[in-house]
Amino acid sequence: MVTALAIGSIIVLVCISFGQFIHRFGMPALVIFLVLGIIAGSLPFEYSVIEPPIAANVGEAALIFVMFYGGFGTNWKIARTVAVKAGMLASLGVIITAGAVMLFTVLVFHLSWIEGFLFGSIIGCTDAASVFSILRSKKMNLKHNTVSVLEIENGSNDPTAYLLTLVALLIMQGGSLWDVPLLVAKQIVFGVGIGIGIAVLAVPVILRFSKHFADGMDLVFVFAIAILTFALAQLLGGNGYLAAFLCGIILGNSKIPNKVRMAHFFDSVDWLGQIMIFFFLGLLVTPANLIPAILPAIALALFLLFIARPLAVFLIFRLRGSPLNQCLLISWVGLRGAASLVFAVLAITSGVVLQSDIFHIVVLTAFFSILIQGTLLEPMAKRLNMIDTETDVMQSFTDFQEHSEKAFLKIRLDPGHAWVGHDLKSLDVGQNSLIVLIKRGNQTIAPKGDTVLMPDDIVVMTAESYTDTDDGMHVERRIIEKEDPWAHLLISDLGLPSNALIVAVEKKDGTQVTPKGWTKINPEDAVTIITWDA
User: What is the mean pLDDT of the chain?
Assistant: First the structure.
């Protein structure tokens, strides 16, 4: 046991170290996790041997947190404008891709129709871990809200592929076609119901008891919620991955305390999950079986990249008026990854008889996809003129606030503080700082020049960072879209509630405007609002 723990920790450290090294060259770190798993699986010691069912269980467990964080890290206020198209790509797009791959494998690999459909279902989903790691590390945003499109699509297309995989396996195991509608209905109804239901119940519990949690226990609570959501949905015959994703979206976009810290925690768990999936499933690879799988994998990877993926993207996005360069880039970043590997292991452990070596072909297809498409992401985005240099990519994620240069600092004034007893106009808070809100007991005060600060006042000012805590104050950064109801209105006409205050307006060119009643809100403005518990 101790030896296994030591070997496991060394493996994680090696994976991370090598991953960081190759990431400097623009190469996705997930590539090295898979390669190290294959190498370790070829070494002659007992811990390099792992049974496929165990690997499948590890992969499914890790995928829970990949899915949950996919939802938790998505900023819905930014993503909602593209949610319909992204959702169509995550559902109808996967079906189109699976159908195209089915035809390809039947005609080229000479598989049966149902095994071709299984192939398409497994490889039909995409994985954005490499894409987002590159975008975050290079602080590279994409035009036309494309990052949000990829967030929603990649977070919600795994459940679709999982559902299609289950349908294919059901038929291959001798199930009746009449069983398919029941399977689909249970997957969707219980997946959606459990995911939304548990999240809606969890939010008030977190808000009610957050003050009583020991330090860090709120993270443990949400961690357990993610597992419970998946497990309960699966027990009832629902889609656990869909439930985990929906639960993550609701919790990640609710005004719960310590959300930024939670986002960072689940980002780390997500990466650990990716490492486990790629490494553990790499242990299942037999190097000798990779050689005959190379040509089929290359052919499948090229077909996905240049035909199947663009077909789905153009039918859904281009026909709805999306720019050509956006369609081309979304087609390019359809990387195959962790979920496809997990579903491939699910297929080989299901007991069905397969004509093809589906596992090794999928492994190599994912490898080529991540290596080529992930590595060339930045050059492709530049060539297609899709890099947005005017906005921060972090605004698309729920942990944006902590990364923003223009955030907020909260100060509690002790009785002996130098500011106590002085009015605001006499204070020197620095050229780039501004006091935007004062909380005095249960009273919230909009600051004026003659406002005198008192002991125990809580002062919120523009500074390096402000993080929501349990004092009832929350910060929101809202990007104004063309159809936003605030667009083209004066602040005085917005009808803000008494417990809300606009503290900053940032124009498209980066200019900061001090908000007044007569300040006009225009499309593409970034408006920062502070709200507090009434």
Answer: 83
